[in-house]
C-alpha cells in the first residue's frame, strides 16, 4: 500500500465531481498522466502523487487539524472535490489513459503530535564542541571569493535576516535529488558540481548552507534528524538540515535548505527541539518562514516524523581535511528523548558506533561562545 501524509482538516462526504461517471460503484475520473495534484483548503501539493493502477488500494492519508476543509484531486483532465473528517474514508477510481483503473482511497487521520520529553536541567561539562570563531580560514575565504555570499547580506540588519538570505540562496542552487551523491562532501566541491548541472540530496543543502553561514561569521552546524524506527526502516529514516547560532538572539535556530524553511513561533526562530514542541502544542500559531510558497501543512506533516533523534558533530570547523576532533573517540552527539533505547543501527544494515548519547538539551544546545576553538 502506498501512503502519503499531508496536513488537512476534513469532514464528511460532501462531494462534487466534474464530468462524473462511476466504475464498480465508485465515482470515476480520468487522467492522461500518472502525475496528479491535490489541494487542501488553499494549499496545493503539485506533482507528488503518482496514479498507480498496479496497487490494490492507492491510499492517500491526510492529517486533519480542524473540523472541516475542502479536499480536491486534480489529474489535469478531470477532478473530484469532497470533505472528510478524521477516520472517514472516500474512495474513487482514476482511469489512466483510458485503459487502467486505480482505486484511490483518501482517508482523514488525526495527527499524532505529542511533545517529546528531554532532560532540561543537567549538563555534561566534559563535552566540548569546536566551531569557527571568525579566525582566518583559507577554505572559507576561498568560498567567499568564488560565490557572492557577502553581497547577499549587505542590506540585512539582523542575524535572522542574514540566515534567511543564505537559506534562500542555497535552496535555489539546485533541485533536490535524493539519490545523487557528490564526488566530495565539502561546500566548494558540491557547488562546482552544481555548476555542471548536477542535483543533490538534503545532506548537501546542509553542508553548503552550514559553510556559507560560517563564512559570514555565524556559527553553524549540520543537523541530522532520524525517525523513531531508524533501526528497522529500510529507507527514508533520516533527514539532514542545519542549525545556526544567532548572536543577537543568543540561540540556535533550525534552517532546512531542501525545503527553504525556518520555523518561527511568536516571531522567535526555533531550534529543532523547540520546533517539535511547537508542532504539538502551538500548531496554529506556528509559522514557517520561506521564500518559496512552501505549505506549512505539507512541510510539518513531512518533517514531524524525523523530529525524534537529533545528531550533531563535535567538530564543526570548515576545511579541516578530515582532521576532526573527537570526544572519547566519538565524533557525534545524539540527543534522544528520555527512556528511549539508544539506536546503533541506521536503516537495518548500517552500523553507527560513533555516537555519544544524551537526553539533555543543555548538552545539545550549549552556547558556542564558551566551547572549544
CATH class of the largest domain: Alpha Beta
Mean pLDDT: 90
Structural class: alpha+beta
The second-level CATH architecture of the largest domain is Roll
> What order do the helices and strands follow?
EEEEEEEEEEEHHHHHEEEEEHEHEEEEEH
* Assembly level: single chain
Instruction: Tell me the strand order in the biggest sheet.
Output: 1-7-11-10-4-3
Uncertain segments of ≥5 residues (pLDDT<50)?
Answer: 3-19
End-to-end separation in angstroms reads 50 Å
The percent range for strand residues is 25-35%
| CATH fold label of the largest domain | C8orf32 fold
What's the structural domain tally?
A: 2
Largest sheet: 6 strands, mixed
Helix content range of the residues, please? 10-25%
Tally of DSSP β-strands: 22
Output the number of helix runs.
8
Rg estimate, integer Å: 23 Å
User: Which outline best applies?
Assistant: globular
